[in-house]
């Protein structure tokens, strides 16, 4: 069994994918648009009418060994990501700093990257889309 995050960007999915490709090296696996749906009247079961045809109905991107999926959702405006964070484990402090700074570009630092009792580098940042990230150098585990 596998748990994979599914993020609703409310109309900014394509922009988010491009950002994550630049910022953290995400690899786009697939992107399907509403206009490509062979049954456009069916929508996706959770909305009255599907968004504009060029909006993203579903996408999948790989970040490291994890697949993160998403869509434009209902295209209702600003995404509201609350109650969770995505965690990036990095091999060293330089990698942590690079990813933290890239994710923070246009976003908001929630906790500056620094030494903690559990990691030589840990920080929290909300990116420009409002997704919270925890970036850390994972301690060695036996």
UniProtKB/TrEMBL annotation:
InterPro entries: Glyas_Bleomycin-R_OHBP_Dase, PhnB-like. Residues 3-135 form the PhnB-like domain. Pfam families: 3-dmu-9_3-mt (PF06983). SUPFAM superfamilies: Glyoxalase/Bleomycin resistance protein/Dihydroxybiphenyl dioxygenase (SSF54593). It comes from the Bacteria. PANTHER family: PROTEIN YJDN (PTHR33990:SF1), PROTEIN YJDN-RELATED (PTHR33990). This is PhnB-like domain-containing protein. It comes from Cupriavidus malaysiensis.
């Amino acid at each position: 069994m596998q748990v994979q995050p599914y993020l609703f960007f409310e109309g900014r999915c394509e922009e988010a994918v491009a950002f994550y490709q630049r910022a953290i090296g995400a690899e786009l696996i697939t992107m399907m648009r509403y206009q490509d749906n062979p049954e456009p009247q069916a929508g996706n079961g959770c909305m009255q009418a599907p968004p504009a045809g060029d909006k993203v109905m579903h996408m999948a991107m790989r970040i490291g060994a994890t697949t993160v999926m998403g869509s434009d959702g209902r295209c209702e405006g600003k995404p509201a990501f609350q109650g969770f964070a995505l965690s990036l484990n990095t091999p060293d402090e330089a990698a942590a700093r690079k990813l933290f700074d890239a994710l923070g570009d246009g976003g908001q630092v929630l906790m500056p990257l620094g030494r903690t009792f559990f990691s030589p580098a840990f920080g929290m940042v909300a990116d420009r889309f409002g997704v919270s990230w925890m970036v850390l150098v994972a301690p060695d585990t036996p």
